[in-house]
Amino acid sequence: MTQANDNGRLGKIHTVNDVLKWVEEVSKEWRINSEHQYPVHLWFRGNRSPGHQLVPSIFRLQEEKKCTIKKISSYYVDIQPEKSSKMYEEGGLYIHLINRLPEIRSEFPSVLDILSLFRHYELPCRLLDWTENVLIALWMASEDNDKDGELFALNARKLAETVDLPHQKKIPPNTAVYITESLHVLLRTGMVRTSYLDELFALPFVREGFLGNGFSERFWEHLLKAVSLMKEKDIGIIEGTENMEQTENIIDKIIKYINNPSNSLSQEHAKLYKLLYKEMPPLMKQQLYLYFDNSVDIENLKKAQKARLWLFKFLFDLRKPVTVFPERRNIRLMAQSGMFTIGGGDFLVEKIKREGIECRIPRPLHLNRENTDLICVARIPQECKKLLRVQLERIGIHAANVYPELESQGKYLKNLWYVDIDSSSVRG
After folding, report:
1. 82 near 175, Cβ under 8 Å?
2. Strand ranges (DSSP E) for 24-138?
3. Are the C-beta atoms of residues 218 and 226 closer than 8 Å to each other?
């Protein structure tokens, strides 16, 4: 007997028929219908055990007990490690891989392509795997019969709208998922290469991303100077959730900060921000109010304040994950109908600190699994996993199809033909 949760939606998946019903219920709840353009719809993810946060592998603390999970909003959580925590250093992994295997750059030219290869080799990175195929996700969730599993649905359409550029907003809202060349994807893949804002914005492909998204060369030059001047207290405000009151959002806190006389700009720096505002795309100036909460009185702010507020909010948004439709350049990504969310933000580790330079990239935010506007979760009882695997195999979802590489085919065939000595049990 199936069980529904408080929303009337199935809370547990016992059979393949249950998962199809669950998808229908989630689609109805989120008002996703056949008229919506693919691939901006539902994406799915399966976890073999319960209770995990939706955190990319590079940000998963190796000593998970040594961290604090803070709910910054209904959409995002901030997971803060203690100083003694250990984690993988993404830049080192990336450089070491391409130095050892330089030939892969001809087949995988972008950083995103190489990160998708990371997933292929189970190397930690800032990508979180999703799939368009709920049955693939169900197969993943039904591994390990000793624990309950979890099946996630992501409202990719809604997540794609949470991070945007004012001059690219559309009415109705932008429904295009990000691709390899999108500015927000380029910025997040650039974070693999550096933990500092000035180095990030100076990367050639990030520069080209700005120029290809309606920004001028002069805008990018002023922006590069502005981010290089960011101080640790500025980054602290962009990150600052520790002392926030329940009624105060991050934008309120930023406005109070930049309006505080003690944080005012020098004449030289104010001039820089005025130039930054001057070089904003015309539509961006007109639509800045769309970028903030209705309570922000944009019109009465000075030009330098408008540009500074935009920059702080833009850097805050760089902490968030975004949806990305990757070029499926490897066979596993094709077989699994793979999609990604790519995490923003970074942790500055001691070994790559620069003396006297404070403009570090703010730390990451992660999807809040409890947010019902973006995420739906169903439980896979451990006692149902064996039956689910049998049902999935009958309709062609099995290890050889999910992992189509040659070495995985060998494992699948060995398992399939591992038979009893009794000849009556041999398949024929």
Report:
1. no
2. 42-47, 67-71, 76-81, 127-131
3. no
Closest by Cα among 52, 51, 50, 11 to 147: 50
CB atoms within 10 A of CB 143: 16
- In the prediction, which pLDDT does 96 show? 92
Instruction: Give the residues across from 324 on adjacent strands.
Output: 178, 340
Q: What is the pLDDT of residues 347-392, one digit of tens each?
A: 988 778 888 889 999 999 999 999 999 999 999 999 999 999 999 9
Overall average pLDDT of the 399-406 stretch: 84
Closest to 141 in 3D by CA, of 8, 34, 22: 22
C-alpha span between 277 and 258 (Å, rounded):
16
Bridge partners, residue 47, by sequence = 150
**Burial of 368 (C-beta count, 10 Å sphere; 0-12/13-18/19+):** buried
The rounded distance, in Å, linking the Cα atoms of 117 and 108 is 8
Q: Report CA Rg, the chain.
A: 24
Write out the H or E segment, with its range, that includes residue 109.
none
At 2-56, the pLDDT tens digits run 455 555 567 899 999 999 999 999 999 998 876 655 555 889 999 999 988 999 9
Closest CA to 71 of 238, 233, 244: 244
| Closest residue by Cα to residue 13 from 116, 142, 128, 126 | 142
Distance CA 401, CA 409 (A): 9
Q: What is the DSSP string of 147-189?
A: S-EEEEEEEHHHHHTSS--GGG--SSPP-PPB-TT-HHHHHHH
Unique residue bearing structure tokens 């962009």? 238
CA distances from residue 174 to 157, 161, 171, 228, 379 in whole angstroms, order as listed: 9, 6, 7, 31, 32
Higher model confidence: residue 249 or residue 302?
A: 302
Q: What is the pTM of this model?
A: 0.88
